[in-house]
Each structure stands twice: as structure tokens, then as C-alpha cells.
Amino acid sequence: MKPSWTNFHSHTFYDDGKSPLEDYIIAAIEQNVKSYGFSTHSPVPFPSTWNMKMENYREYLAEIDRLKEKYKGQIQIYAGLEVDYIEGRCGVHNFRELDYSVGSVHYVNQFEDGNYWEIDYTKTHYDKGLQEIFGGSIQRAFQRYVDLNIKMIEEDTPTVLGHLDKMKMHNSTGKWFEESEEWYQELIEKYLEVIKAKNIIVEVNTRGFYKGYSQLYPSPWILEKVLEKNIPITLSSDAHTTAEITKGFAETALQLKEIGFKTMHVLWDGEWQPFPFDEKGVYLP
Ligand SMILES: [Zn+2]
Ligand SMILES: [Zn+2]
């Protein structure tokens, strides 16, 4: 059995990704990827520079169908979205025609002018939201972020939970908090209990690692708890360019093995299934 890679978190020129869909498939095949999912940022009910426009949604699905057919036998292709959960406004339930969904929270509360605080935008924007909306309290902000994720998991359940601790993105220098702080440890514990109860897949997202923003999402100590609770994981790169499709995978797979994971979940023949892996890839049938 020869190992190969898979990736279910990827962006394209329909959102803030860089290339047409077919370019990613050609590059994925070159990078020894055998199963690939597109997860464009879902349309949202207000102007956004990085979410797909609703009028392009049908065309996006049709293009994925065309590629599924064209590359049959070389690579499995799946239609997904990275669905923005926005309380009371949109979520996974708006997009039922997908093969799978990655549920993510990027938009937290709104500023006074109605614009959203986006937790993965610039440092200046992050600091502004933290000050103006949460009075500078990272604990209150993180609590709100986790509450929104929990609401999404319980009420509008995605297949895969996207970058579960993304909000730490601008905390790489420990400016706002240390992950060893008691409030944070307790918050994560509660969060993982909800994930476990719904039995959804947690993605191990390499983007923070290869972009140098932060460590993996989630942090290794959280992954240890994920393993303890027997929560399924999948490895994804959150690729925005074709060069990022398998970026950080070998190092991360090795780290996951060291933590003690034996399998990862992969969408294969239309079903999420566990397969063994190592730093060379996943051992698919
Ligand atoms: Zn995201
Ligand atoms: Zn993404």
C-alpha cells in the first residue's frame, strides 16, 4: 500500500483563494493527493470581500461536478463549503446540497456601525474589536467565540469543525493570554465535551503553522485532549494557493503520531472513514 494525501479545506478564486478550481485538482494530483474537497467561504447576507457571491454558487457546484467526472479514477473530488456560522443569520442549514461542510466562526460580534469583528483579519482590526466590543477582555471575547462555536455545533451541525481555536491567531507572542491560564483550560474542556457529544470531526489545520502566525489549529495540548476523548480528526491545509495543498502535512502527521493518534478521518468513496497514516501520507485502500 502506497501512502497518499487528502485535503478537505481549500479555497479558490470564488473567494479569497488564488486560482480556478481545475488548477487545484491538477496540483493536487501532482502532490499525490487522492481525495480532495473544495471548501470555498460560503455566501453571507451582507457585503464581504472574501466570501463567495451567492450568484456564483450554482456555477461553483456545476464546476465541481464537471471536475468529478473529468478526473474520475485519478482523484476523488467533493463539494463542500467553509460555512460561516453567524448567529441568527446563516449557517450549514442554508447549504444542503453539499457532500460535506466545514463549519467555522470568523464573524463574532458587530461594531456600533453594524460591521462585524472578523477574528482572522489584521492585528489592528483584532485589537479594535477587542477594545471596543469586549472592553479589552480576551477572556470575554474568547468565551463569546467558543459560545458561538458551541451554538453552531449543537444547532446547525457541520460535518467538520474548522480551526477550533482560530481566535488565538493574533496571540502568537502571548500578548493577550497564556494557554495555560485556568479560565482558558476550562473553556476548552467544556468546548471539547460538546464536540464529543455531537461526534463531529475536528480538523487539524496547518495554515497557522506554515504561515507562521501561530501553531497548529488546534494547539498540540488540545489535540492530546481530543485523542483522550476519542474525537475523530482530519488533516487539512486551508490552502489558498496551489502550492499550499499539502503544506505542513509531513511535519504535522509526524507530530500527530507522536501525540498518539493512529488514524485520521478521510472522505473516501462518499463516506468519512478512519485510515492509518504516517509522515508519508494516509494509507488508503
Ligand atoms: Zn477559516
Ligand atoms: Zn479556510
TrEMBL record:
Protein's pathway: Amino-acid biosynthesis; L-histidine biosynthesis; L-histidine from 5-phospho-alpha-D-ribose 1-diphosphate: step 8/9
Domain PHP as annotated: residue spans: 8-206
Signal peptide start and end residues: none
GO molecular function, one term: histidinol-phosphatase activity
Record-linked InterPro entries: Histidinol_P_phosphatase_HisJ, PHP_dom, Pol/histidinol_Pase-like
First-tier enzyme category under EC: hydrolase
Gene Ontology biological-process entries: L-histidine biosynthetic process
Reactions mediated catalytically: L-histidinol phosphate + H2O = L-histidinol + phosphate
Keyword Hydrolase: yes
Record Pfam families: PHP (PF02811)
EC number of this enzyme: 3.1.3.15
Keywords: Amino-acid biosynthesis, Histidine biosynthesis, Hydrolase
GO CC annotations on file: cytoplasm
Family: Belongs to the PHP hydrolase family. HisK subfamily.
This protein's name: Histidinol-phosphatase
